[in-house]
Please model this.
Amino acid sequence: MDLSERKQKILQVIIDEYIGTAEPVGSRAISKRNELGLSSATIRNEMADLEDMGYLVKPHTSAGRIPSDVGYRFYVNSLMQKYQLGVEAIEVLRRELAEKVNQLDTLIKKASIITSSLTEYTTVVTSPMLSRSVIKKIDVLAMAQGTAMIIVITKAGFVKNRMISVDITEAEATRITELLNRFFSGVMTDEIDENSVIMIASAAVESGINPKTVQTVLSKVYEFITALDECDVYINNARSMLQYPEFADVDKAREMLDFLENRDNLIKIIENGHNTDGVGIKIGKENNAKELENSSLITVDYRLGSRSLGKIGVIGPKRMNYAKVIASLDLISGHIDKILEELYSNEGEG
Amino acid sequence: MDLSERKQKILQVIIDEYIGTAEPVGSRAISKRNELGLSSATIRNEMADLEDMGYLVKPHTSAGRIPSDVGYRFYVNSLMQKYQLGVEAIEVLRRELAEKVNQLDTLIKKASIITSSLTEYTTVVTSPMLSRSVIKKIDVLAMAQGTAMIIVITKAGFVKNRMISVDITEAEATRITELLNRFFSGVMTDEIDENSVIMIASAAVESGINPKTVQTVLSKVYEFITALDECDVYINNARSMLQYPEFADVDKAREMLDFLENRDNLIKIIENGHNTDGVGIKIGKENNAKELENSSLITVDYRLGSRSLGKIGVIGPKRMNYAKVIASLDLISGHIDKILEELYSNEGEG
DNA sequence: TGTTAGCACTCGTCCGATTTGAGTGCTAAC
DNA sequence: GTTAGCACTCAAATCGGACGAGTGCTAACA
Model:
């Protein structure tokens, strides 16, 4: 079942060609390029074999052939040449990322934008998972009459806030804040359980705060902390889909954009689409989503130390420039990892 | 130059029809609806007049006629019937907005989503302008080695944060935080000038903090506060463009989506497109943007008290359902105003 | 004078037939 | 094993006629 050297060569030429043009490629076109020095008839025979073996398919009798999912998979695994990004591209990336790195979410969004412009495909990034973050500080602020605000800051520099409805005085808020920080500052979010909340509650009540207020605030705080890991996803450059002939049909484009709009689904696909080691590549049906049958998804982790915080993914037509996308993602995730490492090297250990 | 009763009637029927179908409407179709009891020939004569007067245009000789920008403008100003939103729609809106109103930006984003689903057009909202906000609290936190975070919370419940590079100890950060709040808490952001910063700086230096650290932190804080009013814009349901025949051509759709992606431009258009009183309606070329020549933009303010915080806009084809969009925006902005009023009734006065 | 029936004319769209051309598979010869 | 050659296939492009929606104009009518 192994492919002869020559078949591999031909398959590679076909896929390279198809990636460039999106047109089925025929035997004559290949033989003309005479890298192989074979006549079109010979190529035809080989192509027929490749089709039998499942690497190619014919859209119809009198068209050329296009790669099947299997063909792409073989290409990605065995044939593809490593892509070398241009020095200017690398330079731009370095410069852009250096500019405003000091906000974790800004950094991620920026990374997404850069990836889009580097690859010209749609980029999706998941926001950093905060579930295993260390709390730097919690604030409870009395705001307008009957409302208060909870602010949680993690060591990694992530700030989340939420308003709650509760009658509370500034003094009470300050006191509760004090207690919260005494117990929770420096603690990892998923180590916080109801017991710790109860301890704080009794301490607060002892210091004379209305038990009902304490109860309301602390249950909201607890709820908020446990909900911190809600994963969000940013989509970038979705409109780029429209530039590829695969989506020349407005209905196709609409289907894809509708799919992208469904965040939950998208997150699921991105999380699924990933094997542990570095880059995850899902081709066509491998994505297990009808809407992505004609598309591929490539993902990488971005990490803090050994811990994966989230993912950056690129979605494009199945005939995407895999080598370039992989190179881009590799480069950018490497950069992010380094930046995060520098910024928060003391985070992440209990 | 006035339009006779009958011409107005005819114009109205034509526009109503065209809004529904996107097809040029002919004289026969109108006469068939016999609301007017006129023959097609008579209608034809009237339509020819309306064309001469600039209210209608012909795509080509043997098609019906479609409204011109002038025609739409007349329709919007004089002919359009008030649209009554369904009770279920109103109920949904009320319920949705009630649910998680406690975050200003969440509220606005949600409003945008609701508007999209109510109107089925693309919605753009500008984030609340913070320039004339009252500061509730400022925090400076020492984070990882060599970095600190500035957090500003406004009375209206807006939280913004930024990381900065500076060598600072926790004690120093706490001290600076104390001073910042003593001077700035309760102050409106645009009342803060360099003098106040200098005062804080000297106080901080007096209390023994490294002058260089003080200088770095305070200049960053000042920079941050003055940059608070950077206006952002959220786009919702852009893909809905694709469902209208106006954008059946992928290139047209692409042009529009490209335009929407250019945030600066978009903000400019939205801000321009607004006259002070309530709803702003810009039809086609009135938008002063090539990309919007075939689209209309309707905007409303959302307010806190009398102060406009930002805008909600709807972009759709020129033949959009103006009455419905206006009714929706009216309703939703009214709701938001009320919610904001309730939440932050004590904000906004120096 | 305003309205309408009638008619010639325009012009985009639809539809079927034809042509074109890229590409294939097979065969026979080298 | 390779290749030239040829018949065959089939989507896409081209062409042309029919169709029909719609117009403008004219003449007749109330």
Summary: Residues 38-42, 45, 59-63 of chain B lie near DNA strand C (CB under 10 Å from a C1'). Chain B touches chain A at residues 102-103, 136-137, 139, 141, 143-145, 147, 149, 151, 153, 155, 157, 159, 161-165, 238-239, 242-243, 247-250, 253-254, 257-258, 261, 343-347 (CB under 8 Å).
